[in-house]
Amino acid sequence: MTACRIEDVPVAMCGREEVSMATCGREEVSMATWWHRETPMSMWKRVRLAAVVLMVVVGMLASPALGKKNVSSNVSLLRPQLVQSCPMAFHKIGTKCYFYGYFPLNWFRAAEFCHSFGNGVSLATIETAQENLYIKKWLAVNGDHNTGVWVGGSDNGHSGKWAWFPTGQLVDFTNWGPSQPSGDDQHCMYMVGGLLGYQWADFHCDFDMHFLCEHGVNTIKPWR
After folding, report:
1. What are residue 14's DSSP bridge partners?
2. For 190, which of 24, 40, 165, 222 is 20 to 30 Å away at the CA?
3. How distant, in Å, are the alpha carbons of 27, 37, 49, 119, 181 from that of 97?
């Protein structure tokens, strides 16, 4: 090994001895000189180690033992998870998805508009107190308090017997306002905006007001 004279300078390496600016034979060695000249083995060790790690990772991803599903899941971790819980233009209210019609239609036209979204969409049914509370709270913030909101209840063709038009099921849970339903020729259900806090009422079906569509409204299995 070449003898090195250690000078009073910052420490580096000259051969195997600690110096930073030294004379190895007649050649001055600096940090840059040491990196390029004195450590080729160390550099190759780093390169080989990186190559081994890369091969191990690639082998794990391509291994049949992991299965295609696991490879996909590993790759999916690199992508942002875009999860859309409701269809476009529908709002998540509670556990269900609803479209709020900000434009006024009569009850029949509102039902037709809901059906135009496709299979499983119709005027909303409200079958539990919790569902009713979710909708009331949402409408209190987002609804137009100067008008009501059509939902899917009706006693058309069976006066006094209220049923949910989208499912054919009789109305069980109710949240009728004072003196409602009033009867006569008012056969369609709506939620009253304003001071009444979206309680239920009946009204003339040909009156134009806002409406609420529900996605996945009919979960009844077909008869067999």
Report:
1. 17
2. 222
3. 79, 69, 53, 14, 27
172 close to 153: Cβ distance less than 8 angstroms: no
Q: Cα separation of 14 and 25, whole Å? A: 10
Residue 217 CA, chain-centre distance (Å), reads 20
Q: How far apart are CA 53 and CA 134, in angstroms?
A: 53
Map residue 140 onto helix, strand or coil. Answer: helix
Q: What pTM was computed for the model?
A: 0.62
What is the predicted pLDDT for the residue at 42? 56
CA distance 222 to 224: 6
Looking at residue 197, its pLDDT comes to 85
Q: Which helix (H) or strand (E) holds 131?
A: helix 129-142
Strand 13-14 relative to strand 4-6, pairing? unpaired
What letter does residue 138 receive in the DSSP assignment?
A: H
